[in-house]
Every structure is written in C-alpha cells, then in structure tokens.
Design brief:
The complex is a heterodimer of chains A (220) and B (299). Chain A has 220 residues and is of the alpha+beta class. Chain A folds into two domains: 131 residues, D-3-phosphoglycerate dehydrogenase, domain 3 (60s Ribosomal Protein L30, Chain: A, 2-Layer Sandwich); 71 residues, Alpha-Beta Plaits. Chain A is built from seven helices and eleven strands. Chain A is globular, with a radius of gyration of 17 Å. The N and C termini of chain A lie close together (11 Å). The model of chain A has no long low-confidence stretch (mean pLDDT 92). With 299 residues, chain B is mainly alpha-helical. Chain B contains 13 helices and one strand. Classes of the chains: A alpha+beta (220), B mainly alpha (299). The interface between A and B is large, with 59 and 68 residues. Strand 1 of chain A pairs antiparallel with strand 1 of chain B. Chain B: Belongs to the iron-sulfur dependent L-serine dehydratase family. Chain B: Its EC number is 4.3.1.17. Chain B: It catalyses: L-serine = pyruvate + NH4(+). Chain B: Its cofactor is [4Fe-4S] cluster.
C-alpha cells in the first residue's frame, strides 16, 4: 500500500495550487537538499512528463527551489522562493525534457557547489506523496509499500552491520535492503525498507555512526 | 503491513460487524499503522480542519489569482444566496460557494489542506461547512467527517489513483466528491452501507472526467469542477439516505475509474494539451498569461 496514513489523504497542509506539482515538488527539492546536506550553490532541474508541460502554471519551479532552500509544503516563503534564492546566491535553471519516463511527474535535480555535485530523481505520485527513484546514477528500487531510508556512507567494513544493529536496537525490522557502491572504497549506499516508521531520534543516531555521510527518509 | 481494510467492502463489513462508525475504523487503523495515540491523531486532524475553516473564510472575503483567471465567484454566490431567490436551494449553493472559496484560495497560492489533492481541495470542506448548518454537529463530529472522507480516499489512493496526471480529474474531484458524499451520510446518521452507496453513486457520475487545465493552471476548469463535485456529493448523499442503491458495488466502481484513467490519452491527464486547454480561448489565455516563453531560469 503506497498510501498508509489518513493524513496522506486529508493533507498535507500546503501552499497551493497543486498537491502533486507544488507540494510534491517542494518535497522532492527538500529531499535533495537534505541528501546534499547543505544549500547548493547551483541547481539544474530537469522536468519530465506533466511536470515539463505544466510546471509554470503549477508553480512547480518555485516549489522545487523552495524545497532546495529547505522550505516545508506549508511555508509561505515558497511563494517568493526565486527572490530568496537570488538573495542567498543560489542559481537555478529549469530544463523541460521530452524523453519518456515511467511516471508522468518526474524531476531530475542536479545540484552542487565548489565542493561536490549530486544528482537525484524523484517522482510525485499524487496528493503530495513522493518517491525518490535514483541517486547519483544508482537506481533506488523501492516497492513503495513500506517506509524506507537511504544511507549514504563510505565503503568501509562494518557500516552495514552498524546500521542494522542500530535499527535492531529500536526494534525496527528490515523488510528489504539493497546495497551498492560505485568503486571499492568510494561512496556507497544502502536502501532499507522497514516495517516501522523511523523517527527523528533513530535517524539522528544513524547519522552519528562512523563513516555515515547522510541518512534520509525516502518513503514514509 | 497489517491494515483493518483494503477495500470498501472490508471497511463497511468491519464497521457493521463491530457496530462502529467508519470514522472510528479509520482512527483505529491510523493508531495501528503509525503507533500514535488517539489524542495525537485527533489533534492533527483538528488542525487540518482549522486550516480548512480559515481557507473558506479567506475565500469568502474575495481572493484573486495572479493570472486573473479565477477569484471572486464565492463572493458572488454568497451574495446571490442572500437575495433568497436561489433555485437549487441554500444548502447546495452554500456547499458550492465554500468549495469555490477554498479553490480560489488554492489558485491564489494560499494555504489549504489537500483533500485528497490541492486541485480538489474544495469539495470536502465545502460540503462539510454547508451540511454543518443543517445538522449542527459537534467539533468531534466535524473531525470525524474528515476521517470518514479519509477512509474512502485511502481505498481509492491505494486501489486506483488520486492523481490527475495518472487518472484524470475523475481521480481528483471525482474521488473528493465521492469521499464527501460518504462522509455526509455518517454525519447525517446513515449506515456505513449507505456511505458506500453514496460513494458509488457519486463516483459513477464523475467517471471519465478528464484533467485539462487551461495553461496548466489549477484554475480553469478546476475551481468550477469543485463546485459541481460538491453538489454531486450532496445530491448522491440524499439519494442514498432515501434508500437508493448502486447496482455496481463501490469497489468495482473504483476499479472502473482506475481502468478508465489508464486508458486515458496523456493529453487528458494534466498536460494542458487537450480538452479545454486546447480550445482557441484556452490557447489564447495561455499565451496571454505566459507570453511566448515557457523556459524559466534564475539569475
């Protein structure tokens, strides 16, 4: 079941006009910001399908930029996100794409600064709910039926065991897990689907583990 | 994942077997899935209800969108009602005007609560605040109205779709109207089965509705479709309370909605390429609002 909570249906509280194209878009931007770990200096945002056709009318562009500035769906500052971005020195560019994608509301966000770059693909599946489908070229194969977290880490022994132990400590059962890396010793990631919701406290403890770069919820 | 219901049949059976309201089953399931307390869940829904009240209030004062395509109709409707000559009746027009008010606020980038989406956010609160004047519910009953709506919406979202880009307007305003209809029944003292009948009757009459927003804006025809969704919901609720039943069971109507959405060409699924968006006036409005440029960039 993709929609688990009644508040997925009656909610979110948000700035209009569209739950999928505004609230969902803001959430995709905010996950990218979260994964990057800081405000990027620049953003190239590729839009596909309905996102590409109607992003201006739905303020999808303003919302994604708002998300990159760490605004929540109900943050009034979404309306002036372009001005805020300019003030904060973040440049952005929107590129409507014509290629086919699996989901009609797809965005690929490429962000970076002088230190590093990151690319992420997200889809907005309706009513403000989103899924992250790709990170830095790694496909994140989620069933979408369970809460999921993404752990970015250095490819070192013990990382996976530490994360699993931490989840065990909080009685969180792992239903499905995928690990991948680009090259030995380089960046690696874990996609973990769990049966229980991972709360802020657990997320914080995971982040404190050695060699962990970033921990983010990618499906609630 | 353990859930108390996966479809409307299971939802209604459980409610009737345990002698509970549909809203109660939804609250219990939320507690089960999220491990949150009843108080916590009720409080969050209370806050959502407050957001809905504030949006209607704001819309009834008169708002206008940036594009200028929508705004002010909720005010026109309220003034017309006050003259006392309305043909369709005050409750119906009140629901319509409050649905319109919410969507006018949404179009103006105001704060709303998506029910189930932003583009269809007017129907559930619009009907709630109109029916409220007739049934005089308690605050808790008003909160329960949202849980009942949510229970049906939960089934649609998981078994079909609530996204216009995936399933057309039938998935958004269609779902919202059907959800509202089921919730009206519970507030009016009808049975869970009657909620299911009202839901089925409403959704059947919204099947096939395409998503064809002019210039891609959630304005034309979205705002007025919320008005019609609200009136559909109220009429279907009256039909079900009168004892009218749907020949096609609720879950099969939901499946039909999903299949129709799947078969819908992408021009009619929130791409602003077909239907009203592609009419000469639709195109003219689009060029008037956005000019020739469709590519935006900062700095």
């Amino acid at each position: 079941m993709k929609f688990k909570s009644v508040f997925d249906i009656i909610g979110p509280v948000m700035i209009g006009p569209s739950s999928s194209h505004t609230a969902g878009a803001a959430r995709i931007g905010r996950v990218a910001r979260d994964l990057f770990g800081r405000q990027p200096a620049w953003a190239k945002i590729h839009l596909y399908g309905s996102f590409a056709e109607t992003y201006k009318g739905h303020s999808t562009d303003v919302a994604i930029v708002g998300g990159l500035l760490d605004y929540d769906t109900f943050d009034e500052r979404i309306k002036t996100a372009f001005e805020e971005a300019e003030k904060l020195g973040m440049s952005y560019e929107f590129i409507p794409e014509t290629g086919n994608v699996d989901h009609p509301n797809t965005a690929r966000i490429v962000i970076g600064d002088e230190k590093s770059e990151m690319s992420m693909m997200g889809i907005s599946i309706g009513g403000g709910k989103i899924e992250i489908t790709e990170l830095n070229g790694f496909p994140l194969r989620l069933s979408g039926n369970h809460p999921a977290i993404l752990v970015v880490h250095d490819d070192r022994s013990g990382c996976i065991a530490n994360v699993a132990n931490c989840l065990y400590k909080y009685d969180i059962n792992i239903g499905h897990m995928e690990v991948s890396r680009k090259e030995r010793g380089d960046m690696a990631l874990m996609v973990i689907e769990v049966d229980q919701t991972v709360d802020v406290e657990v997320m914080g403890e995971l982040r404190e583990l050695p060699n962990i770069t970033q921990v983010t919820r990618i499906a609630d | 994942m353990d859930v108390l219901f996966r479809n409307v049949r299971e939802l209604v059976e459980r409610a009737e077997k345990e002698g509970k309201l549909i809203s109660e089953i939804m609250i219990e399931q939320e507690m089960l899935i999220t491990d949150r307390s009843r108080e916590d869940i009720m409080q969050q829904m209370d806050r959502n209800l407050t957001v809905m009240e504030e949006a209607v209030e704001k819309g009834l004062q008169g708002v206008h969108s940036v594009s200028g395509l929508t705004g002010g109709d909720a005010v026109l409707l309220q003034k017309y009602m006050q003259q006392g000559n309305s043909l369709s009746g005050d409750l119906l027009l009140d629901a319509v005007s409050k649905a319109v008010a919410t969507n006018e606020v949404n179009a103006a980038m105001g704060t709303i609560c998506a029910t189930p989406t932003a583009g269809s956010a007017g129907v559930v609160p619009g009907t709630l605040f109109a029916v409220k004047n007739k049934l005089n519910p308690t605050r808790e009953q008003m909160i329960r109205y949202l849980f009942t709506s949510g229970a049906f919406g939960f089934v649609v979202a998981n078994n079909a779709s609530i996204s216009g880009a995936a399933g057309g307007c039938q998935a958004e305003v269609g779902s919202a109207a059907a959800m509202a209809s089921a919730a009206i029944i519970e507030m009016a003292g009808g049975t869970p089965q009657q909620s299911s009948e009202a839901f089925a009757i409403t959704l059947k009459n919204m099947l096939g509705l395409v998503c064809d927003p002019v210039a891609g804006l959630v304005e034309v025809p979205c705002v007025k479709r919320n008005a019609m969704g609200a009136s559909n919901a109220v009429v279907a609720a009256d039909m079900a309370l009168a004892g009218v039943t749907s020949r096609i069971p609720c879950d099969e109507v939901i499946s039909a909605m999903f299949e129709i959405g799947q078969a819908m060409p992408s021009a009619f699924r929130e791409t602003a390429k077909g239907g009203l968006a592609a009419t000469p006036t639709g195109k003219w409005l689009e060029s008037k609002i956005f000019g020739g440029s469709v590519v935006g960039s900062g700095q």
